[in-house]
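S2.1 Query sequence ((S)-2-hydroxy-acid oxidase)
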Amino acid sequence: MATKSLICLEEYEEEARSILDRNAWGYYSSGATTEYTLRDNVQAYNRYSIFPRVLVDVSLIDMSVRLLGDTIDMPIGISPTAMQCLAHPDGEKATARAAARMGTCLTLSSWSTTNIEEVAKHNGSHSFRWFQLYVYKDNNLTIDLVRRAEREGFKALVVTVDTPELGLRYGDKRNKFSLPRHLKLANFSERDSSSLASSGGSALQEYVKKLIDPSLVWDGIDWLRSITRLPIVLKGVLRADDAREAMKHDIQGILVSNHGARQLDTVPATVD
Ligand SMILES: Cc1cc2nc3c(=O)[nH]c(=O)nc-3n(C[C@H](O)[C@H](O)[C@H](O)COP(=O)(O)O)c2cc1C
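Output structure tokens follow.
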């Protein structure tokens, strides 16, 4: 297939809409409920202006930044997005190679359709990768993910704390979202990902209800701190008091995020 030349994000989005099936497009594009925050996430950028200095030497530009003791080539990283093989057979492998080539940070979702080990291989031994962790009701599932991430050279755990339940996404509900049979959540056994295959509603919503710990509080973060020496970043923090609380719990970073407006509608735009 000839590759179309897409030159900006909007064109990639348009192309994706035209080639993905309903199930995949609905999953990738939906925000929570009325999608007020989804729209606001984009519109918010228009409320900020850039005031550039002139007559500054830009013949050599170094955009590198330090991040938890490492250096990446630009202050833009890749956030975790689940189930990338819904869009392309190379899925997470392609993203891992691209992140390495661009010298930036890859964060791999717990719910990837390529397993931790395979992604690490494609990201390369000198690359900078973090692992996004959901905390499971079954501690053994969580511990297994942590140990594999450690073993495969992931340099931090990004613990998503805005998903005690999955956000209500009308698109997924309407489409009865499910993972096609040829794909699976590759970090888990058949038993632990089987509920995603068929469903009467959104399969992912049921999966979260069944397996993810909705009772997770700060004690659970202390437990996680006690089982790993990797830095911990909390993803989904939107309030200063939660950020201060994180510091008390020996957390190395926060990722200010509204989860792409997919969890709670009417929260502030992330950039705000
Ligand atoms: C299709 C899709 C899947 C996502 N999957 C995950 C995931 O598995 N884990 C997670 O923590 N965040 C997930 N996210 C949220 C993103 O990591 C990220 O937070 C969001 O796209 C950008 O919003 P932000 O700037 O508010 O962070 C997903 C987002 C999208 C669009």
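The longest strand covers residues 232-237. The domain at 12-44+64-261 is CATH 3.20.20.70 (TIM Barrel).
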